[in-house]
Backbone:
DNA sequence: AGAAGTTTTCT
DNA sequence: GAAAACTTC
């Protein structure tokens, strides 16, 4: 039996799953840091390549994990497994229960470490921000991972496990994964890009440079929240733009806040958080849904956002919200299918942020204010020169500016003149947002004002702390 | 971190 | 008459 320590590495050196073979001096260090690692899945020689980002999150599920560990135990005697605590979705929770069972059966000590200041198993979030700050201020450990001696497994686990082939091809337009790339993004953000952070945060095109773009690295565990937080503090001290950095750092806290919230209330994933909204959107239209899903709604900014998301796996926060708003308010479709679909598109899918945000935007919490985005107003406000629209809906790129925002307002003569016929080259608007705005607004406000809805909202809020009330606008 | 409608303030 | 402030859904 081999007793060497075993490592699985992400990109250069990042452990994704550490499986220890009783070599305490070597395996203590990663335990004390909070950078996290997802379960991995491949014969080690292929890992550096495999763990670039894929076009979907790579989750090994229950049966695959069981087989993975069974395979490992055929070659090595496992004494201890380190992993991060993951605030995941139902299928990953089921997987973890299976892993725990496996460990118990085989006498393996599974040690999980907290992630991003999120606390497992609490009922109330009082003083949570203070806890978060103290976690972020802790020393960042730099374990000498390279000292760990790695060993190779025979064969290729991904191939053997028949993981869906879509996981195996990295989309060429995606950000590159790995810790070394993560550090380049971190550096360029705080040195240069952060200077336009507040100014560009809602702009679909310019946010792609001026936002950090660190979210995939955080989601995949190439960087820890603590590393990012401390890099921001350092940059601020060294003459960086204080206001911009401050805004960014406070969003890091909200990032973790929502994960904490989801950790404590996982039903955000699969049911309306407020049951008062259970029957409101019960007319499904596959045709409307497909138009949204493929970016063929006839509203240029909506379509541009969806096509961009499909192609690059990234959109800024506001444009994500707008897509949700269009689906749930203007098309008046239930959120669940769209939520799972968008989750599958995000390179930076983070369950704890995604599902609570989706429901908040869909208006199914009862305690957030109703927000119905007007896609034309958003387009004129946030993509005033239509650079983003022109890029992602190229059929519109030669139209005069006003028609890029509202192509359906062209006359037949103008359609001829510019060679774009609405209904043929680009769709008619699938709904009239002026009309759907009124209907959605009327429906949502009437439900929100019902006694029953308020009571349910109060019950949900009772489980939440003071900070939450600020967030929800004192509703 | 919404949008539309209405009232008040500023030029 | 436009911009800002405030209200309401």
Residues:
């Amino acid at each position: 039996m081999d007793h060497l320590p075993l490592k699985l590495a992400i990109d250069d050196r990042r452990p994704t799953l550490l499986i220890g073979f009783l070599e305490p001096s070597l395996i203590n260090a990663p335990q004390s840091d909070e950078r996290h690692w997802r379960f991995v899945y491949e014969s080690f020689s292929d890992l550096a390549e495999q763990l670039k980002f894929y076009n979907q999150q790579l989750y090994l599920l229950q049966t695959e994990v069981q087989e993975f560990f069974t395979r490992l135990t055929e070659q090595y005697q496992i004494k201890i497994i380190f992993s991060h605590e993951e605030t995941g979705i139902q299928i990953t929770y089921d997987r973890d229960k299976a892993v725990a069972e496996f460990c118990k059966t085989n006498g393996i000590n599974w040690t999980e470490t907290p992630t991003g200041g999120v606390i497992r198993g609490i009922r109330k979030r009082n003083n949570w921000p203070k806890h978060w700050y103290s976690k972020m201020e802790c020393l960042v450990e730099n374990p000498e991972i390279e000292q760990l001696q790695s060993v190779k497994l025979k064969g290729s686990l991904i191939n053997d496990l028949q993981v869906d082939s879509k996981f195996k091809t990295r989309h060429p337009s995606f950000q590159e994964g790995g810790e070394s790339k993560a550090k380049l993004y971190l550096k360029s953000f705080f040195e240069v890009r952060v200077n336009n952070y507040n100014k560009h945060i809602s702009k679909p095109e310019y946010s792609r440079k001026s936002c950090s773009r660190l979210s995939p690295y955080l989601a995949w565990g190439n960087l820890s929240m603590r590393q990012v937080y401390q890099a921001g503090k350092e940059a601020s001290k060294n003459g960086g733009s204080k206001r911009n950095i401050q805004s960014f750092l406070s969003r890091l806290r909200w990032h973790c806040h929502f994960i904490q919230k989801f950790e404590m209330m996982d039903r955000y994933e699969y049911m309306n958080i407020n049951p008062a909204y259970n029957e409101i959107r019960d007319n499904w239209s596959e045709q409307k849904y497909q138009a949204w899903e493929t970016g063929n709604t006839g509203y240029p900014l909506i379509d541009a956002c969806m096509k961009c998301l499909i192609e690059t796996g990234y959109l800024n926060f506001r444009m994500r919200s707008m897509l949700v708003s269009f689906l749930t308010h203007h098309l008046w479709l239930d959120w669940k299918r769209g939520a799972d679909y968008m989750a599958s598109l995000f390179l930076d899918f983070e369950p704890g942020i995604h599902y609570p945000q989706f429901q908040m935007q869909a208006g199914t919490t009862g305690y957030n204010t109703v927000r119905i985005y007007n896609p034309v107003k958003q387009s004129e406000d946030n993509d005033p020169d239509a650079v983003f629209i022109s890029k992602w809906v190229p059929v519109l790129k030669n139209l005069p500016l006003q028609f890029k925002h509202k192509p359906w307002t062209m006359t037949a003569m103008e359609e001829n003149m510019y060679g774009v016929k609405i209904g043929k080259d680009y769709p008619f608007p699938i709904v009239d947002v002026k009309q759907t705005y009124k209907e959605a607004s009327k429906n949502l406000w009437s439900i929100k004002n019902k006694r029953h809805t308020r009571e349910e909202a109060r019950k949900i809020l009772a489980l939440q702390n003071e900070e939450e009330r600020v967030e929800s606008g004192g509703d």
